[in-house]
Amino acid sequence: MTAATDLIRPEIDALKAYHVADASGYLKLDAMENPHTLPAPMRAELGALLAEALIHRYPDPQAETVKQRLVQALDLPTEAEILLGNGSDEIIQIIAMTLARPDATLLALEPSFVMYRMIATFCGLGYVGVPLKADFALDMPATLDAIRTHRPAVTFIAYPNNPTGNRFSPEDVATLIEAAAPGLVVVDEAYHAFAADSFMSRVLDHPNVVVMRTLSKLGLAGLRLGFLVGSADWLGAFDKVRLPYNINVLTQVAASYALDHIAVFNAQAADIRAERSRLAAGLAALSGWTVYPSEANFLLARVPDAPAVFAGLKAAGILIKNLHGAHPMLDNCLRFTVGSRSDNDAVLSALAALTQGALPTVAP
Question: What is the mean pLDDT of the chain?
């Protein structure tokens, strides 16, 4: 009898599944979620709309209403095309599947979003990771050399970068875009709501660029809605790979409603940006801590003993992301999602107690 492992591709068998920590009972600050819920009147209105949703029918296969709302709410270029995905992950997978010729390569910077590497493996693409500098800035000579050497079919650039939080120079990104041509460059703007710049208005200035975003960080993580913006040449090909009805009825209704109230989410993003500055100052005041600049809704900190701090906060009922061991450049690094004012106060209070030895620890 043939064992399953005899049939599974060896590179898939060697992978570990993407791990999501159980956050039950914890203050959850590990996944870059918006800490704010919808105002009560909006919850009631949305509930009524969802009650009328035609869940016995298949959804609009192109989700045209959602696309129209995205253009209006986020000021997307009207001459560009839009493709929707079940989160950004599905869009990354669609792109990788479309471009997975024999010997094709996906290039990304490291450390960055781990799904670039994982999805390249899923789809049979070669993967090249180019290390950032020690301060997480772009290493332009190394990156340009990697592009010249490997001629990637697709290059992913997170703008700002996760998990480091920094946004690369737009001039440097433009240089990489030109160097990568005719290979596709995906500018991943998952954290656009918290950043000072975007490539969205320039997406059609380069024939080899698309911009990817998600509504997850803006406050709609539970809807799992990502989108890609670019030329018809690229998006028409990607749409052939997209599975039918990939955006369900409830997501279409809820997203359309939320985008009609984008001012609420923009105000929440402004609050998060203000809290980011306050939390950064509090973390930076801790002895031996380095807090890296961030234009996202999280902060990366290098600390004297990341496993111990992670364990201490967990004992205090606070769950953050321990990145120690995830990548050689992230030794003793922790990632803090920026929460509400009370969330961040709880973090700073727990850290103050931890540094004074007033908190118990548990195994990380």
Answer: 95
